[in-house]
User: Fold this.
Amino acid sequence: MAVPSLHLGRPVGALGPRTIQVSTRTRLSQPVSIRRFQTTAQRRDDGNTYDVVVVGSGCSGLTAAAVAAKYGLKTLVVEKSRFFGGTTAYSGGGAWIPANKHQPEVGITDDSFEKADGYLKRVLGDLYDQTKVHQFLRQGPKMVEWMEANTEMKFKPVPLPDYQETIPGASAARTILTKEYDGSPLGRRLLNDVRYTLEGYHVFGSLQVDPAEIPVLTNAFGSLSNFIASSSKVFRYAWDVIRFGKGAYMANGNALVGRLLKTCSGEGVTLWKESPASKLITNDKKEVVGIVINRSNGGPTTINVKKGVVLAGGGFSRSEEDARKVFPHEWSAAPKHNVGDGKNMAQAVGGYLPPPNPNNGIFAPISLHKVKDGPIRRFPHFSTDRTKPGAIIVAPNGRRFGNEAEPYQEFVKKLHQLNISKAYLIADRTFLRKYGMGLALAAPMPVRHLIRDGYLIEAPSIRELAQKIEVPAEELEKTVAAMNEYAKTGVDPEFHRGETIYDKFYGDPSTGLPNSSLGYCVRAPFYALPLYPGNVSSTYGIATNENAQVVDAKNQPIPGLYAVGCDSNSVMRGEYPGGGSSIGPGMTFGYVAGHQLAGKALE
Ligand SMILES: Cc1cc2nc3c(=O)[nH]c(=O)nc-3n(C[C@H](O)[C@H](O)[C@H](O)COP(=O)(O)OP(=O)(O)OC[C@H]3O[C@@H](n4cnc5c(N)ncnc54)[C@H](O)[C@@H]3O)c2cc1C
Assistant:
């Protein structure tokens, strides 16, 4: 790391603690040496008092905690679930950060604050909030630089175009991914405390794969180098399982959580799992001065908080009551603990819940695997299958209703508009073996159990498939025949699939067909997979200002209270301008909150 660690006994660098807190919001400037007389143990043993308490261990909360701890604040992260990482650990780990330092690596040299601002103004329309958008655009690139210089975070660029690519100001690459991470330094206990990726996003229990590895692994026997790379990955995995009880190679959102957790543990952040926060405590000046935590190993504990509480509980998409009010669909792939505790706690101390946005979540079509006597497994279909050549999606009338490869937010909005509560992804055997369909992974992974459970429906002909899923057979046959014709000509006259940079990005040029997004559906058996409109997060939450402070109905900050990530009303207000529009702002405002708490000026 470029900046020395703040651990005592080692040199204190530019970020070293220069203040100590003597009472709520009273700061006394002290030379660095005063802190040096305290040992780490003394700081930790300071009863139930912390400078900062962060509620939730996703990307937003852990970023705030990492920044606060790096500046020397005594920080506690409480996590409700048995695992750290929240929805973030399930995610692709992509962060949408315009004008970030990595864009030139993929040839983008013309991005700027002004360009991105113009784009957001157009995408958000009436929802555009200049103060918050400007803070996001100003601090996002700085967050990336600061995190890479001071923490374990490492990003990498991806040439994924913005999702409204025809709108002026769009860029061809603003999304950055988390670099894959060898989680061995987390140690056996912490590694096992990281939330597993969603079913279907790993193989053999916990072997994770970076997107860049997929072409190699799905063609392991295609060349000697593919074979060597694939088998060494499997051997490494087996060795990790012996050492740690699970795979230590972390990719995507798991790598993001692994890197942030490593930073937090290295900076002495106290991490409590199975410890839901339930209530904020205020003093007579309405300042937040404490929080009640219900620890699994011993009743409610009141924690005194000197500087502030950061609510980062990941929103409410799994709260049946709140979700029903704002989502026109039933299913969410977020973890079951994300039920709006942060929003509820904030409201109880005067935090303002604005009226809902036109859209209130990150949408994705979801397939459901109902296992006997077990929870329903939910697989969000972002890009792994429905965007690939040969995928066809039909409504219950057997007809297509849009471009299958469209960005997920827009695709589900269309389902809502057309009132389609169930659609079918249709493909043939070649497609299934090459790309997989949801939880049915590409060859050589077995799929029989999924057919047996009714998750994936198989039939020897399109006609019989139509009968099995109860859609009009003639219509489905006509649809498939038309798509086969489009694959040949390379033109989809109905919905223009394959014409955008986005469609091409997720297409497959290796088919050799004229349009990398269009392919054939001709080889029996044929498959159908039911898809439902759903979400992976709520994005509607408690009102915050540009400093991530929770505000009341008069837009006045509630002292000592911050909300970030999906607990706050997103700066994107439920729109999705590009890949990573949740994690990008979540980490940026986590970074902002960390600076505010530490009393460090933001540039
Ligand atoms: C498969 C998948 C892929 C995705 N890919 C992307 C992507 O690439 N880019 C992107 O921007 N978004 C993506 N998303 C969405 C994104 O993951 C989330 O919107 C984002 O991670 C939310 O971050 P967060 O910090 O707000 O909350 P979370 O990561 O959900 O963390 C919140 C945590 O708070 C805990 N919590 C809740 N209540 C309490 C309480 N009372 N006390 C203590 N803890 C509590 C929860 O248990 C949870 O662990 C994806 C989602 C999924 C499911």
The first helix runs from residue 32 to 36. The radius of gyration is 24 Å. The domain at 362-535 is CATH 3.90.700.10 (Flavocytochrome C3; Chain A, domain 1).
